[in-house]
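Page 42, continued from yesterday. The earlier attempt failed because a stray header line got pasted into the input along with the sequence. Redoing it now with the clean sequence only.
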Amino acid sequence: MNSPTTTRQNDLAAQLAKLGLRATAVNLDDFIARATRGRCAPRALLEEIVRAELADRAQRNLQRLLSRARIGRFKPMADFDWNWPQKLDRDLIERALTLDFLSEGRNLILLGANGLGKTMIAKNIAFAAVTAGHGVLFRTASELLADLECDSPQLRRRKFNFYARPRLLCIDEVGYLSYDSTAADLLYEVINRRYERNSILITTNRAFKDWNEVFPNATCIATLLDRLTHHADISKIEGKSFRVRESELEAAARGKKASPRTPAGRTK
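This time it went through. Structure tokens are written below.
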């Protein structure tokens, strides 16, 4: 059975949590014990409570931004082999990771064949933006366009506003599927609402001259690309797929392991 003192502390913790002082509520027993034993001056104790609350709120805000961004799992840039692609503007990518392009409202386009790390780079940039406190959305092109294809004009307007607001919008895998002209119009509207306001990061495996094949019969492609690339840095990545390389290395390792050893003193 709880003592009156314990009950009062539990009630106080609940009230602190209700006020949004969650870190104080969680550490209430420790704070009270230190104040009672005179281990911490009143001002120092208050300063520590403030530090705990600020750290807790920063962590919760980070988790909220990450949840909303939907970046998913990814390998850190420390695992990226800069020497594998035959062509890659490393300076441009490293500048993008500093997020300078966000303050300038510029776009970033990663162009290259499948398996060259475009999505990995994009996710690292998106994560860096989130940890810096920026609003970020990470969506594949198919997810974005499917979300915008709704019958209600009011709902569609709300969705356009949703995709216009964050500091960085990452659209992954443009060109992996083909879409109709309606999808092109939807993508154009997203780009237009963000034009010269907030940054877009796009990964694509198709050269811009081939986007008419991605969006057949779309009349807005020229205007869409004009606005997308007006204030943009474009990094073209060339080379053999990382996945092909890993498969070849794994196959070689399996072959080496399975190869029988020649007994000493004998030749094949």
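Notes: DSSP finds 13 helices and five strands in the chain.
Reminder to self: strip header lines before submitting.
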